Amino acid sequence: MTTHHIRTKSLLAVPACMALALTAGLGATHATAAGGGRYAAQAEHAGLTGAQSVALQKDVDRYVTQTGGKQVSANRVDVRGGFVLVAVPGEKYARDLRTTTHPTSAADCNYLNFCGWPKANYEGTVWQHSSCNIYWEIPNGWNSGGSWWNNQSEGTVARMYNKSKHLVYSTPPAQVGNGSYDAHGNWHPVWYVKVC
Questions:
Q1: Are 36 and 43 contacting, i.e. CB atoms less than 8 angstroms apart?
Q2: Residue 22 to residues 1, 12, 36, 160: CA-CA distances in angstroms?
Q3: DSSP 186
Q4: Backbone phi, then psi, for 139, in 5-degree steps?
Q5: What is the pLDDT of residues 44-102, one digit of tens each?
Q6: Which has the closest alpha carbon to 141: 122, 157, 159, 127?
Q7: pLDDT digits (tens, 9 = 90+) for 160-177
Q8: Which of 24, 28, 146, 147 could serve as 187's disulfide partner, Cβ 3.0–4.6 Å?
């Protein structure tokens, strides 16, 4: 019985492996690109290689699974009260592939939102939320380093909590037109953020 199950999996894996090998030899076709082809034209227009597009889609799929969100572009996952803008593999900063070829910066954190990045100096994927009084779970894998921008209304403090939802850090109050921020933060003890 076990042998039959293994044999069936092996037979199904052969065509998949052949297709993958053929695709790799051609530089990855649009069928394996972002969104399984749904966002391939968007990725191509943004200048992504086939390999970048395939790797990006894997990252997007991971964030969809983690957050329960919905993919709405080649690199954006909308979630309740916010979104995740996934950085293109090999690029230092995230950029919205729907609208621009320019990388985002901390200044792109929308007003009345809290934004987080997995790396220092606002590098990598952007995680943004605006809804208050909710424990927003930070993405898996943000275990150290990182940066954040509290671009809420003046005086608003964001609070960060550990796995047990005990407070570990409160941001300085947001300032008019400047928010509060840390280009060299530490996500290690943080599991959740209440943005306001």
A1: no
A2: 33, 16, 16, 47
A3: -
A4: -60, 145
A5: 988 999 999 999 999 999 999 999 999 999 999 999 999 999 999 999 999 989 886 66
A6: 127
A7: 999 999 999 999 999 876
A8: 146
